[in-house]
Specification:
This protein is α+β, with helices and mostly antiparallel strands and about 575 residues long. The protein folds into 3 domains: about 210 residues, no CATH class; about 190 residues, no CATH class; about 120 residues, Pdz3 Domain, CATH 2.30.42.10. The chain has 15 helices and 30 strands. The strands form 7 sheets. Strands 1, 6, 10, 12, 13, 15, 17 and 22 form an 8-stranded antiparallel β-sheet that branches. Strands 24, 25, 26, 27, 28 and 29 form a 6-stranded antiparallel β-sheet that branches. Helix 1 crosses helix 2, helix 5 packs across helix 7 and helix 9 packs antiparallel against helix 10. The chain starts with a strand and ends with a strand.
Amino acid sequence: MKNLYIIFSTLFLYTQSAISQVTPNSNRFDVENYIALDNNGKYYPYTTHGFYENAASGTTARIYLLPVLKLDLSKIKFIDNQGHETSQSDANIRTMIIPVTQDLALPNESQKAAISSAISGNTTIQGFYPPIAKNNFGMPLINSNLSPMLSSQIVTMANQYETNYILPQQQLINDYNTRYKAQIISLTELEIIVEAGSEIVYTKRIPNTWIATGGTLSNITIDNISEYVKNVIADGNGQILVSYKFKDSQSSTINAHIDATAIVNQFLSEAYQSSVTQHSSGWSFLGFGSSSKSIRSSFDQQVTQQYNANSIANTTIEMYDANDKMIEEFESVFFPSITQQEVIQNHINAAEKAKLEGNTALQNLHLQLVSALQNNNPNLAPNIEAAVAALGKEDYIGFIANGIKWGSNSGSGNNSFRRVLNSSEMTNMAANWNQTRVISIQHAVTQPVNIAKQVDFRPSLGAIDGIPFQNNLFMSNGFTASWQSVAGALIGPITVGGTFHQNNITAGTLLTKIGSYSVYSGQTLSDALSHYKAGEKVYVTFIAQTGSQPSPMGAIPVYQEQKVQVTLGAYPQTN
């Protein structure tokens, strides 16, 4: 089975102290194909994304991170019809279980460099470069027996490495530490969708209430799976979509101009359409119910248009919460309550007005409504469907503006009425309605899950290059000593946490073999390592000065061959 990881971003609760919500005007960032060091000093592919604030120079901006969820396809379990674990090739598989793990932590130093690079748009950094191991004076750790000339050469190599790699990397880390403060986004809802081809084979919605109580994500379990779906997913050819939703870090206070006239007109228009399509009595039309849905829809539409400047980059503003209190306030102003008798009198007055204008059809309709209202009997209501359909819209608005019955369509005992403001009243009230409202914003992001790029690690001794060496040395075998021609490579600057550093082997040490392979230059050092794998144990052979021997020419350094078994480190192959 392929050893592949599916990595995708999600939102998940971790600790209350780390949780936050995204502020408006934040921007998306992504980190992909970057090799970082984990908190144990091991390299691994680091993927993350989230949002960052636009902050003025000299101020601290917040970074909101999305925790990362991982699915290891190599650890998928297959369960047969009897409930026993089996192999992918089994023809009687009933259930497929995909283990899920999560990476939920604030970034370490190596990860900060990647985030800072992604935000700044600098995409040249592919992996974290380990720093040079140094002494208390800030100089590279160098074999004390090395000549000043060779020591100077190693210092030069260290300086070049730091100039080309460490300093740019450290600048990214410094920018992060001085400009940003990371937090983890709080989730309002999470949905995971698994697709095989065009078929949705798994979906699970996780609500905020479950997450806020500290729930743990369970494995993705797909029951009654077909042979096709099983193989598509197991071979890494399926697609996983993750939809996560979150709100702004604080409710957004806006000076929203709510166009009351537009809201009322939209409501009346919908009522009109309802009246001309139903086949029922006029009494049903008069009792068509609450306007809350129309008002909420119009609130959301208008506020969306005015709130575009506060959107978060690459997200969808999914909902504006026009709450019941706002709707109640609006209805009380623009649809004031009136008594049944006031409704009857309004229609009597409207009938007289229609009579004076010579509109007998409208006059009769008003009088029929008066009769229906006075008797409070739906069977006596005039059939106004045809009449309303025949009226022009202006006449229609004028007609129903004098009295509307809300609530139940049942005529028995229902005396709840509301009036629509006329045009002049509405204009005055609309001007007064332009006031500050606090509206909460929910954003939604949906993205596909991609199979992470396989990371190739090469074995490493934690040394930066090597210096060719060949000379005659006074070599001792423990009993006798003689002059011998010795070829090897002086170890270049060593890195913190590398194999040489862990084994107290300093720069300038003369290395002659890695395993059975001779080393006499930086290139042959790399060639010798290519025969091994990261994590493999191997003997390294080096020449160490063990003392000195007097001679007429002065003290002669005595050297001896030594072998040390080491574990090869792992360094990512980023090129």
